[in-house]
């Protein structure tokens, strides 16, 4: 009985991993799979692994392999790359050597304005990009710390304490997905910054929970088209170092994210620990807010914060410009 349970669950998780890799968010079934609570699938191994110890050795081996597949390939658990670990254990480089980016979908929270002075001090960020940002948050940021230049364009709030080299430009619409782009000066290089907010799958997922899956395919197509259009717009301005951060509404395993943004690297995937969930709605916890960087950067650290007044939580990434990136003007 133990052998059947362990082997059966291991094979089931292998099939789920294959579905995540091949069909992730490319159709209705893949969308439900990626936005579902995949992290829960790890917990049966807490019982199955101890039980496997009383069975044959190959059953224990199958349990260990199955648990690793579930943890990393199904649930999306991340550990830092060796390059990021070596960088994090380095000397640190001193003040001004690391570019800190914060991205946060505030869900138009007005409460954030009442605490933003404390948050700005805690973040100590060079660039902050917010999606679904209420006007009072932008006003509060400007009043809280005069070192920041604060811009509000459509739903986006941008705060930077670096010299701005190009104005904030808006691209797209709410239905199609929106983005803004601008450039800052950092360590002698011009760094392009972009922030995005792709269409939300919320309506389609809610309808599916009520028994109607009619909107799922439409949501998949809408987000894929928005991702492709905005990625192309960002890439047109890609001359040297670039960081694109925001609410992509695409899990990291999404086919659209992998296809459209493959020219950039995911900061959490390189330097994050854990599941990296950025959006919390009950048991449904997904990683849809990302910081993507060009090869001009080494990711020294990346993490998701907690305790903020939104279903989304901020993502922080510390970036170090490589020698070749610093030479880009």
UniProtKB/TrEMBL annotation:
Transmembrane regions listed in the UniProt entry: 28-51, 58-77
One of the record's GO molecular function terms: 5'-tyrosyl-DNA phosphodiesterase activity
GO BP annotations, alphabetical order: double-strand break repair
InterPro entries (alphabetical): Endo/exonu/phosph_ase_sf, Endo/exonuclease/phosphatase, TDP2-like
Entry annotated with the keyword Membrane: yes
Keyword set includes Plastid: no
UniProt cofactor(s): Mg(2+); Mn(2+)
GO CC field: cytoplasm
Keyword terms, alphabetized: DNA damage, DNA repair, Hydrolase, Magnesium, Membrane, Metal-binding, Nuclease, Transmembrane, Transmembrane helix
Domain Endonuclease/exonuclease/phosphatase stretches: 103-312
Full protein name: Endonuclease/exonuclease/phosphatase domain-containing protein
Source organism: Gemmatimonas groenlandica
């Amino acid at each position: 009985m133990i052998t059947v349970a362990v082997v059966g669950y291991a094979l089931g998780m292998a099939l789920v991993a294959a579905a995540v890799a091949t069909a992730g968010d490319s159709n209705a079934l893949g969308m439900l799979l990626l936005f579902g609570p995949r992290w829960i699938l790890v917990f049966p191994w807490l019982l199955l692994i101890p039980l496997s110890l009383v069975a044959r050795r190959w059953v224990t081996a199958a349990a260990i392999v199955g648990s690793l597949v579930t943890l990393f390939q199904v649930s999306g658990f991340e550990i830092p790359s060796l390059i990021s670990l070596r960088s994090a254990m380095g000397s640190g480089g001193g003040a001004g050597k690391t570019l800190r980016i914060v991205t946060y979908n505030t869900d138009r929270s007005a409460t954030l304005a009442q605490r933003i002075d404390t948050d700005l001090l805690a973040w100590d960020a060079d660039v902050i990009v917010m999606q679904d940002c209420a006007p009072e948050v932008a006003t509060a940021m400007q009043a809280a710390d005069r070192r920041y230049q604060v811009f509000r364009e459509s739903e986006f709030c941008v705060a930077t304490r670096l010299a701005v080299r190009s104005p904030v430009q808006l691209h797209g619409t709410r239905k199609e997905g929106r983005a803004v782009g601008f450039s800052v000066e950092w360590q002698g290089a011009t760094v392009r910054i972009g922030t995005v907010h792709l269409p939300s799958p919320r309506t389609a997922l809610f309808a599916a929970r009520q028994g109607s899956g009619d909107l799922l395919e439409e949501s998949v197509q809408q987000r894929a088209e928005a991702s492709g259009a905005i990625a192309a717009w960002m890439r047109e301005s890609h001359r040297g170092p670039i960081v694109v951060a925001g609410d992509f509404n695409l899990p990291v395993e999404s086919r659209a994210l992998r296809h459209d943004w493959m020219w950039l690297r995911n900061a959490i995937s390189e330097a994050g620990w854990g599941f990296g969930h950025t959006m919390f709605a009950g048991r449904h916890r997904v990683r849809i807010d990302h910081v993507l960087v060009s090869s001009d950067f080494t990711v020294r650290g990346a993490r998701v914060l907690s305790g903020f007044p939104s279903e989304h939580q901020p993502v922080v990434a510390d970036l170090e410009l490589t020698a070749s990136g610093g030479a880009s003007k």
